[in-house]
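hey so i finally got around to running the thing on that chain from the lab meeting. sorry it took forever, my laptop kept dying and i had to restart like 3 times. anyway pasting the input first so we r on the same page abt which one it is
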Amino acid sequence: MVHCVMTTPSRVTLTQHILRKQTEHPGATGQLSSLLTQIGVAGKLIQAQVRRAGLIEIWGATGDTNVQGETVQKLDRIAQDALVDVLKYSGAVAGMASEEEHDSIEVPPALAGDYIVVFDPLDGSSNIDANVSIGTIFGIFKRKDPHEVLRTDFLRPGREMIAAGYIIYSSSTVVVYTDGTSVDGFTLDPAAGEYFLSRPNIRMPDKTKVLSVNECNEPYWPKWVKPYVETIKGRNDHDKRRVSSRHIGSLVSDFHRNLLYGGVFLYPADSRTNKGKLRLLYECNPLAFIAQAAGGYASNGLGPILDLQPTALHDRATLIIGPKADVELAERMVKEYA
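ok and heres what got predicted. didnt touch it at all, straight out
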């Protein structure tokens, strides 16, 4: 007979955890705590629609294209509207920028708070119809001017963020966030309608067990990528397979798995355009901020992602993110094959 050992989950809610963290910052006004809590609320609204998508026919495309020239999925628009509506009335946000919108969104002064939020409302949305995990990615800055929202509030290095996180909609709905000191994960209990602390103080393993890269893009890789991939894969020998290939094609899901298990995610520039594909503000910076707080590292091959100075709301970048030693190995190989 097999006996199952049941563990008692933490009963610390997301809101309780955020409020406890607030006490570590003397002089805190409570706005950031309110903002993080409200992002969790938006996540609940989005996950409810994701779970009902097939039943109420909100799969598929709207027929529109976004600022990136990509097809807008119906759930993209639902997630966008949910985030904007919740954040607008949170009392903590002065301005927002979204991957789905051409320009930034300014909150009316009577509703405005102290923070700027950048987000990808539904990362991996091309996978929606196949029931593949998708998610929301966000980063938070303190506004620069108490009287007006400036373009420079958004166009700043990721290192200036004060918090970042993501929400994954999958077999369970999970929130992971950091205020720069620790990375903590919470799982939504549908029965209680609350997120409960499920992974406190997440640390990225320092060994790469997973390599996440779309190898079908090899014909378009810069010269350094193939030898780098072969170096990582070359750690497998007759004694043991030490590295596996896993590529979901949903950045937030690939990163979450690698954060927990130890892995490198790699999306290099495409030789046809000489540009990276991933958005600096909405994808690269928030995940780089999380990786750093968890002991990992993110680079564009030439230096830290968090040091890049954006020039436009929809700048793109090469992203190499994972255990510090292997991301630094990529940087060395970029120089070697330059």
